[in-house]
Design goal:
By secondary structure, the chain is α+β, with helices and mostly antiparallel strands. It has a domain of 48 residues: YefM-like domain (YefM-like fold, 3-Layer(aba) Sandwich), CATH 3.40.1620.10. Helices cover 35% and strands 18% of the residues.
Amino acid sequence: MDIEEVSISQFKAKCLAILERVRKTKKAIRITRHGKPVADVVPAVATVSRAALFGSMRNSLKILGDIVSPVIDTDEIEALRE
């Protein structure tokens, strides 16, 4: 993967334009000083808001049967305690 390189002086002079290019193209740019890498400018990762997560599983659960009553009889519970 070839990454475009920009000198630090070019980056300083055209910072906003370079950041906009990274945003639009989704391709990273490496900033160099005297030909040596200093930093990589990479596109931001999309984030999911908490509001989108809240309720995202709504209507995906189906209760099959009685979830309130004990699984075994109370007589059996007493027998197991002894």
